TrEMBL record:
GO terms for biological process: ceramide biosynthetic process; endoplasmic reticulum organization. Pfam families: SPT_ssu-like. One of its GO terms (cellular component) is serine palmitoyltransferase complex. Keywords: Endoplasmic reticulum, Lipid metabolism, Membrane, Sphingolipid metabolism, Transmembrane, Transmembrane helix. The chain crosses the membrane at residues 9-26, 32-53. It is found in: Endoplasmic reticulum membrane. This is Serine palmitoyltransferase small subunit B. The gene is SPTSSB. Component of the serine palmitoyltransferase multisubunit enzyme (SPT) that catalyzes the initial and rate-limiting step in sphingolipid biosynthesis by condensing L-serine and activated acyl-CoA (most commonly palmitoyl-CoA) to form long-chain bases. The SPT complex is composed of SPTLC1, SPTLC2 or SPTLC3 and SPTSSA or SPTSSB. Within this complex, the heterodimer consisting of SPTLC1 and SPTLC2/SPTLC3 forms the catalytic core. Within the SPT complex, SPTSSB stimulates the catalytic activity and plays a role in substrate specificity. The keyword Lipid metabolism applies. The keyword Signal does not apply. It comes from Oreochromis aureus (Israeli tilapia). The lineage of its organism: Eukaryota, Metazoa, Chordata, Craniata, Vertebrata.
């Protein structure tokens, strides 16, 4: 894919974004406010997922291992 095709494809994706969200009818300053709010919300979701999902997965793993009788590696290391 050469540069012109990539540029046209990105322009098409941006056009689809404008159509799907309906912001093509907004004025430029309204578009920038909408885009900054949307970007901020997406950034917060990504950051929160990066920080808190591993903690919740570890806690769920410990919970289910406790229910089904499995022992964690840290418990095994302390016993030996």
């Amino acid at each position: 894919m050469n540069f012109k095709n990539l540029r046209e494809y990105l322009a098409w994706l941006y056009y689809q974004y404008l159509l799907i969200t309906g912001i093509y009818v907004l004025e430029p300053w309204e578009k920038s406010i909408f885009n900054s709010i949307l970007f901020s919300a997406i950034a917060m979701v990504v950051y929160t997922s990066y920080v808190f999902v591993p903690i919740h997965v570890r806690l769920a793993l410990e919970f289910f291992l406790g229910i089904f009788g499995g022992q964690l590696e840290s418990t095994m290391a302390l016993m030996t």
